[in-house]
Amino acid sequence: MYKRNIQLYIMRTICIICLLVHVLCFQTACTILSETPRETTNINNTWKYAQGDYTGAEQVDYDDSCWENIGIPHSFSIPYFMAKDFYVGYGWYRKHLQLDEKDLTKKLFLEFDGVFQDAEVFVNGKLAGRHVGGYTGFSINISDCAKVGDNMVAVRVNNLWQPDVAPRAGEHVFSGGIYRNVRLVKKTPVHIAWYGTFVTTPELEEQDGKSSSVKIETELCNDSDESGTYRLETRILNEWGEEVAVTETTGRLAANECKVWMQQTEPIQEPKLWTPQTPILYKAVSSLYKDDELLDCMETPFGFRWLKWTADKGFFLNGNRLVIQGANVHQDQAGWGDAVTESAARRDVAMVKEAGFNFIRGSHYPHAPFFVQACDELGLLFWSEAPFWGIGGYGEDGSWSSSAYPVDKTHTAAFEESALLQLEEMIRIHRNHPSIVAWSVCNEAFFTAPEAMDGMRGLLRKMVNRVHQLDPTRPAAIGGAQRPIGEGRIDHIGDVAGYNGDGAIIPDFQNPGIPNIVSEYGSEISSDRPGEYNAKWGCIKQNEGWKGYPWRSGQVSWCAFDHGSIAGSTMAKLGIIDYFRIPKRYWYWYRNEYAGIAPPEWPIDSAAAKLKLEASGTIAKTDGTDDVQLLVTVCDVSGKWVSQSPDVELRIVSGPGEFPTGRSIRFEADSDIRIMDGQAAIAMRSYYAGKTIVEATSEGLEPARITITFKGGEEYKERVTPIVERPYKRYVREGKTEVIQTFGRNNPTITSSNANEHTPGMASDGNIRTYWKASAEDKSPFWTVNTEKGLQLKEIQLHFPDEAARRYIVEASHDNNTWEVLCDKSQNMQTEQNLLLSFSEEVPTGRFVRIRFLENDKAALTEVIVKGIVLE
């Protein structure tokens, strides 16, 4: 007994010592960071905004008293609810900054996480810097413009389409604004550069995960006029904040020099590996000294993991095959558009994770650092994509429905520079995130005019080479590589190919001899909530492709969330979760299939009696990084969810806060701000502190209330604090004209079959020498083109490989299920090689155009061209 007590005493003592060491290590790391001369301040609050362009608005004495009081994140389009049109033009932002004499001894930077898309930054009337590119952050040195006391920051932003700026096209919306966080950063003249560290684990794969050193590349900048000797210490901390390795380097920096210093630690034994199941993060703490004086300190989270994409066996993480089950994600949300908070982005990532997915494709542009950080922390692989982007039905230059690559050669050099620069910025900003498993250089860049296709391929090769130069630890991917087919394919230009839509079933891309993934499936199915309780397999349903193949790395749903789109509501509503972040029943199917969580009871058809109001949290910060998601549910007298959808209003009764529409928001079944299936939701935020009471009301129903506490910053004062009201009105572009667009070439196809060497895409490849032909065994042959837009159809052209008497029927559909006959030639006896259908009076609508043949030996098409106007 005595011996056992001694042993227990020793064990307790050891545990206490270990705990003390852990606390000491953690406190030491925190102390270093808290004592660093670097100061980083979130400055999202108290901005002024005016839509339009204003001469002299950069000047200190400009009168902005009538401008709107706003906080960042902000969008020109707030409140935005999935309209096809959006404001394109200028917007101005102004903010006061207070600086003292000590501040002016430092280098001062304004850091923006994202401004769409052209930002001119002025301080005290002087142009401090400019950045062009809507999805990557940037840092502006304002030191030479700053003064002691009050400083005026003014930012002139425009979201004008530019022929030499990527993207030139895309099926999202392109609202302007300072839509991600803004920070003021104060550094000593000698400091660590913006996103200046690159951390890798070079021996991890070789050692089978049992050990690896940590390699750190750190960019140091001496912005002074004196050279000097400096010491860089980098400490590696594990998930508990304990030091597991340290390395130190001493060297010289010349005056006004920026230089990358290379460091490498001793091997770290048995590191905890990052996986989707165990998303364990380490930190590299970089401390820069002049003698014993600490000049700068910076933390870089990273993970120990290695990856491998293979052409024959799929994707491997840490040596284990992992079947990718993913979803595409656009960044915008109901009401706020692209201007979402960190908390809202994290909720998105969490919903994808909860459904059992292990992968997110960041469609189709670099996402915010906090979005990728959420992937790191919650455990989701991430495909990061550069904004070189195309759209079907492209036309002449002038809007985001243009050729992906410039046709006018006077724009090509600047456009390539823009695409490469944004790729470089994406990699620099995100390179330390363990969740990122590929750098995709494009999405469907093949939607380029025929005469510019060679230029497009050349730029892809340059971008792939640039990825290899900047980050040899990850592959360069070609996203949306399913066209062209045959000669001129782009899928082998990179290291990994992502095939969208029908690319999953096109013969050219089966076991293609390159690592590959289905980067989009299910885009054929558009729906409002509640949707159906099943999978959205789309094309991969054919031959049970959804079960996967050994040579395919996995498949990625299009898409997780409904989103705004210039292609109209047909393309906007393809998510398994709606725009207001309420799941459709598809999401519950995936959650049951992938995560083993049974669906809830669906709403019952019963009389509505009362409302229930819930929030994602009841405490939130006021710095623009946080918000709460409110959910209203219509219930019967017993509290059960019912499917009735009466008009519901959310109103702030007292305290601070705002909805996208101001102090209240009204949900109606047939409006853009919708209540459906007995539920409505919206995010609310505040830039002032205080307790907020929100009430949900509906005529004849028992109301509901909830209290939210907003903490931090200036207190809200009734009748003193500015109140924001933004009544919603769907934006309609002035002078809007109906543009007839052309579809067919490179659009997805669906067929009953195909003969050898006559694949479906050959009837939509723009090449009159190739054609689709049904297989000899096909008893009911058909060929369908998916225009990927809801169209008011104006013209359909059919071209056949030879002149013959054919019997067929031309049909249109919105859902690939219910069809309207446009032309019935089932009794045709006349020979023809071409057919032109024009619609002027009773104009049909549809997304899919199908040609159904009544004779197998005549079932062939050289080319199909569809012209129409995109519907709202």
Structure in words:
This protein starts with a helix and ends with a strand. The longest helix is centred in the first third of the chain and has 34 residues, at 2-35. α4 runs parallel beside α5 (453-470). The chain is 12% helix and 35% strand. With 872 residues, it is mostly beta strands. Strands 25-26-27-28-29-30-31-32 form an 8-stranded parallel β-barrel, surrounded by 4 helices.
Summary of the model, kept short:
With 872 residues, this protein is mainly beta.
The unreliable regions are 1-33
β-strand amount: 35-45%
* N- to C-terminal distance: 82 Å
Largest sheet features: 8 strands, parallel, barrel
Structural class: mainly beta
Major β-sheet strand ordering = 25-26-27-28-29-30-31-32
The best one-word shape is globular
Tell me the helix content. 10-25%
Q: What is the averaged pLDDT score?
A: 94
The strand count comes to 50
SS field, number of helical segments:
7
From the alpha carbons, calculate the radius of gyration and give it in angstroms.
29 Å
List strands and helices in order, with pairings.
Elements (H helix, E strand, L loop, with lengths): L1 H34 L3 E4 L4 E5 L16 E3 L19 E10 L7 E6 L2 E2 L1 E6 L2 E7 L5 E4 L7 E10 L18 E2 L3 E6 L2 E11 L10 E2 L2 E8 L5 E10 L5 E11 L3 E8 L3 E2 L12 E9 L2 E10 L4 E4 L3 E4 L2 E2 L2 E6 L12 H13 L4 E4 L6 H10 L2 E5 L26 H19 L5 E8 L9 H18 L5 E4 L16 E5 L15 E6 L32 E4 L11 H4 L12 H11 L14 E6 L3 E3 L6 E8 L12 E7 L9 E4 L11 E6 L5 E8 L6 E8 L29 E3 L5 E3 L20 E2 L8 E24 L2 E6 L6 E6 L5 E8 L6 E9 L6 E2 L1 E8 L2
Parallel strand pairs: 25-26, 25-32, 26-27, 27-28, 28-29, 29-30, 30-31, 31-32, 34-40
Antiparallel strand pairs: 1-12, 2-3, 2-4, 4-10, 5-9, 5-12, 6-11, 7-8, 7-10, 13-15, 14-19, 15-18, 16-17, 16-20, 20-21, 22-23, 23-24, 33-35, 35-38, 36-37, 36-39, 39-40, 41-50, 42-44, 43-49, 44-47, 44-48, 44-50, 45-46, 45-48
